[in-house]
Amino acid sequence: MAGQVQGKVALVTGGASGIGAACAELLAREGASVVVTDVDELRGPEVVAGIKKAGNEAVFLHQDVTSEARWIEVVAEVMKRYGRLDVLVSNAGIGIGVPSITEMSLEDWRRQTAINLDGVFLSVKHCLPAMRKTGGGSVIMMSSLAGLRGSANLSGYCATKGGVRLFAKAIAMECATFGDGIRVNSVHPGIIDTPIWGKIPTGAPGQGQNAPIDPEERAKFATPLARAGHAMDIAKGVLYLASDASSYVTGTELVIDGGMNAGGVVRPAPAG
User: Fold this and answer.
1) Where does residue 210 fall: left (phi above 0), alpha (psi -120 to 50 degrees), or beta otherwise?
2) What is the pLDDT of residue 197?
């Protein structure tokens, strides 16, 4: 079914790479005009160029999601350019891993919280009024499987993504109370093959960073489906939440994790 978001205007933060880029590309392919924002002024325009080359509509705006002043400017530019905002994909985020929470600096804790949590708060604060003028829409907040369960070495990341999960539910209830036609949901990726895995330490406490994690190898043992997901797997879930196909879905979690959150499987030992 093509054109699932035809005529809608979508804003995707952190859209220069990984999951954000896949979301921007798929939403544009399905008919949305997409505003891609990121701090990456090299890859962001490249994503937009690819979207336009495919015959779809997109624009890149440089944005640090922790800047409230920039949020005001970005939303004003979206409304000036397109006159509406239907979909917000609050995706920008970072992951900072440490062998032990005792080794995490307050500076890193605050930086991660500023991007992963403050940035989502600011996105909602400044996009809701525009979406209400439009007459409704869909807010999609990118959380994580780490927002549903604990993960060693990623306690600070878990704190932010767990916050996003409950923030989404609270804003869903607020929008329902307002009767503004805006649905709000969170998405929870599991092991997805993106560059973030190269930044997570694998050493024991006190030993720092070992070789980067291979997401495919980890997923082979950690997920019931025995493979890592891809950015487009998440984008397809985002497309569903952005489209009218999910018109009765709000305040919930879309978990896309190869079955990890459901439990584990015992595989037979290889023959021989």
Assistant:
1) beta
2) 59
pLDDT for residue 157: 97
CA distance 99 to 61: 36
Given CATH 3.30.70.260, say whether it is the number of domain 9-199+229-254.
no
Burial tier of 236 (Cβ tally within 10 Å: 0-12, 13-18, 19+)? middle
8 Å CB contact between 183 and 139: yes
Which phi-psi region, left, alpha or beta, contains residue 7 (left: φ > 0; alpha: ψ -120 to 50)?
left
Identify which of 218, 216, 220 has the alpha carbon closest to the alpha carbon of residue 193. Answer: 216
Sites in the chain below the pLDDT cut of 70:
1, 196-212, 269-272
What is the pLDDT, as a whole number, of residue 169? Answer: 98
How long, in residues, is the chain? 272
Active site residues: 157
